[in-house]
Write a structure and sequence with these properties.
The protein is mainly α and 338 residues long. Helices cover 72% and strands 9% of the residues. The protein folds into 2 domains: 225 residues, Up-down Bundle (Alpha-lytic protease prodomain-like), CATH 1.20.1510.10; 101 residues, 2-Layer Sandwich (Alpha-Beta Plaits), CATH 3.30.70.1350. It has a 3-stranded mixed sheet, sandwiched between helices. Keywords: Membrane, Transmembrane, Transmembrane helix, Transport.
């Protein structure tokens, strides 16, 4: 929870930088597209308009997901960040990729057109590359900073992070830089060859690029919305901590779920020591709950259930969920001499 609040200003700043850059770029590209009649410039205009709308959506996501838990949402509003980020991914596809594909096909099948507005298009694209680069550098710095905090590479962080905001901005800006290069190549090849085919191909490549980015972002946020387990390293650390507690004989089952950015729900079934009476067990469980949240700040909610370790039905459920290897590891947890 504390980590989420600490990261919030960085995420907001990253989104605001991207919003300012994309809004200005969208206007400039729109003017250049009208003057030049280039399909690639029109596609890049749609690209920047989609990115601008997405930054607004991400700001909404950051604001709404930060609300505290209440009666209707006892675990908080963290998943709203996943939902709005999913909406942003859909927006990239619908308003960016589809429009760019239509422009490319229309230009490819339509009558040949002369190249126009080469200078203004080149200047706008150069300016767009600089502004997008500034936003990309900001997003990259945050990604690298978070990767260092989590002792991961950038690639590992992008695959495992539960903060879709900075990931969306990073992918958007990366795609924007590639899109600018494609548009630049398209309009110059159109000018040099006199054929509008390179312009159309550039537009189609931009559409494909946006579709790929939208797919990866949508898949990530779908997994978070459906419900996914915490980082495996956190799971192993929590499991080891639970099994090592003096009043725990064995860790029987451990389930985790991400309920927001840097917010994890932990449900553990434990075989407590047989000599504990009911009153002592209540105190032990409460103390473990509180200490677990201190040791692991990402753990927001904890449920501990006392169970016998040798229950056949429970062991079968664990094996069905995790497989024999993990079930065996859980069965061994806590059996070492204390």
């Amino acid at each position: 929870m504390a980590q989420e609040q600490d990261d919030q200003p960085d995420s907001v700043g990253t989104v605001l930088v991207a919003l300012a850059a994309n809004a200005g770029i969208a206007v400039a590209k729109g003017v250049a597209a009208v003057v030049s009649g280039s399909a690639a410039m029109a596609s890049e205009t749609a690209h920047s308009v989609a990115d601008t709308a997405n930054e607004v959506i991400l700001l909404v996501a950051l604001r709404r997901s930060d609300r505290p838990p209440d009666r209707d949402h006892p675990f908080g509003y963290g998943p709203e960040r996943f939902f709005w980020s999913f909406v942003a991914a859909v927006s990239i596809f619908v308003s960016g990729a589809v429009f760019a594909a239509i422009e490319g096909i229309d230009t490819l099948l339509g009558p040949a057109e002369e190249s126009a507005g080469l200078v203004i298009s080149s200047v706008v694209l150069a300016l767009a590359f600089v502004l997008e680069g500034i936003s990309w550098v900001r997003a990259t710095r945050q990604v690298r900073s978070e990767a260092r905090q989590h002792d991961q590479t950038v690639r590992q962080l992008l695959r495992s992070t539960d903060d879709p905001t900075v990931k969306t901005v990073f992918y958007e800006d990366s795609a924007a830089l590639v899109g600018v290069v494609l548009a630049f190549a398209g309009i110059w090849l159109h000018h040099l060859t006199g054929s509008s085919v390179p312009d159309a191909v550039a537009s189609l490549l931009i559409a494909a690029l946006l579709a790929v980015v939208a797919f990866f972002l949508a898949r990530t946020n779908k997994n978070l919305l459906v419900g996914s387990q915490a980082d495996p390293r956190l799971i192993r650390a929590v499991g080891a901590w639970l099994a090592s507690q003096p009043h725990v004989d064995a860790l029987v089952d451990l389930m985790t779920q991400r309920i927001g950015t840097d917010r994890v729900l932990v449900c553990a079934r434990l075989d407590f020591a047989d000599d504990l009476d009911a009153a002592t067990l209540e105190v032990v469980a409460l103390d473990m709950d509180r200490e677990l949240r201190v040791v692991f700040p990402d753990v927001a909610e904890v449920f501990l259930e006392p169970v016998p370790r040798h229950d056949a039905q429970l062991r079968s459920e664990v094996r069905a969920r995790y497989g024999d290897r993990v079930a065996a590891a859980l069965a061994e947890a806590g059996r070492e001499p204390r």
